[in-house]
Write a structure and sequence with these properties.
It comes from Pseudomonas putida NBRC 14164. The chain has about 375 residues and is α+β, with helices and mostly antiparallel strands. It is built from 18 helices and 11 strands. The longest helix is centred in the C-terminal third of the chain and has 21 residues. The radius of gyration is 26 Å and the shape is elongated.
């Protein structure tokens, strides 16, 4: 029984990057031996165990065979006879197909260290094409390591094109696709993820709405450079689409509610925000009401940030509408409802009076 660190932990250590999660591989052990040593089984598809003390995951060495469509279309075989080399050859990229034993010796049968030095993302074997999820994974690694100068090998891009042409990407579930997209959006250069998908014809299958939208990637790049959260980055990416298209993308990928809301509101209101300095007070109030700035001020702030990132992505130096919109929201929120309640107003009458007072506040703000 031999235990190895595998995958990302080895890769990132060799790159001099922090190692957060460690994947452990066990070669030469049976399920019964793992039970006897106190490891607790988890995972329905293949034998994975939790360490009795650390709780870290330990997987038995395994091989896999394509048995159906999509990410889940595999049959796994785990036994003490599966070697380290047989396990590593089923992995996606050479830089992820290295192992390190307890003495610190690195096993690198597919020359991952060479590709690390060359800054190349290269597939391990032709079996790469059997898993459509690898198209998204490679694109995500390209986004993560773009700051270090990594690029996708041309021969790997060609295999990714073959997967795109095969129709296998359509077999991915919305949940699996979104998980990769979400992780990619939070990388240092998320625009690279979508550029790689476009280069291998996968964007046409997954997000055809963005194929010709260079400004979407520019806005996303700015959002990442300014370390914005996920929902802001998603709204930046979709900011140029019509509301109906944004709805369709959100539903197709089952994006989280916060992402869906901000992206849709951005699609509906971006043009108004860009004209904020010329908007009459009534239109400005309607814009603020749409965001419910009284109960959800952060959502409006996030929208203003999306507008700013979009402007920066278009090459503009500033976005004076941002301060103006924030000031308008502050003026509207500052209207005190108490005098109206004390005057005996209730229900619809109270709502109309409060709206009138907020309109006055915005008219005064606009004149200032």
């Amino acid at each position: 029984m031999h235990i190895y660190k595998v995958g990302g932990a080895v890769r990132d250590r060799l790159l001099g990057l922090p190692v957060s999660d460690i994947d452990w591989l066990v070669v030469g052990a049976t399920v019964e031996e793992m039970h006897a040593k106190g490891y607790r089984p988890v995972g329905a598809d293949f034998p994975v165990f939790l360490h009795p003390k650390t709780g870290e995951e330990y997987a038995l060495a395994r091989t896999e065979r394509k048995s159906g469509r999509g990410y889940g279309g595999f049959t796994f075989h785990a036994s003490p006879d599966v070697t380290l080399e047989e396990d590593l050859i089923r992995r996606d990229l050479t830089i992820n197909a290295m192992a390190e034993d307890e003495a610190g010796t690195v096993y690198d049968p597919h020359h991952g260290k060479d590709d690390l030095e060359r800054r190349i993302l290269r597939h391990v074997s032709p079996a790469f094409t059997e898993d459509p999820l690898r198209v998204l994974r490679v694109a995500r690694f390209a986004a993560r390591y773009a700051p270090l100068g990594f690029r996708v090998a041309e021969e790997t891009l060609e295999l990714m094109r073959q997967i795109s042409a095969s129709g296998e990407l359509q077999a991915l579930t919305a949940e699996r696709s979104w998980k990769e997209i979400e992780r990619a959006l939070m990388e240092a250069q998320p625009q690279v993820f979508f550029q790689v998908l476009r280069d291998c014809d996968a964007l046409q299958a997954l997000l055809p709405e963005l194929v010709d939208d260079a400004m979407a990637l520019a806005a996303l790049e700015q959002a990442a450079a300014h370390e914005q959260p996920l929902h802001v980055r998603w709204a930046c990416l979709l900011r140029g689409l019509a509301p109906a298209s944004i709805k369709a993308v959100n539903q197709r990928l089952k994006a989280p509610r916060e992402c869906q809301e901000l992206a849709l509101l951005t699609g509906e209101c971006l043009a108004q925000a860009n004209q904020a300095l010329e908007l009459p007070a009534k239109a400005l109030l309607e814009l603020l009401q749409k965001f419910d700035v009284y109960r959800r001020p952060q959502r409006f702030e996030d929208f203003v940030v999306v507008c700013q990132m979009t402007s920066l992505g278009e090459g503009k130096q500033g976005y004076p509408q941002a301060d103006y919109l924030r000031g308008a929201a502050t003026a509207a929120r500052a209207v005190d409802v108490k005098p109206l309640v004390q005057a005996g107003l209730t229900g619809q009458a109270l709502g109309e009076a409060l709206k009138a007072e907020r309109l006055k506040a915005l008219e005064a703000y606009h004149l200032d």
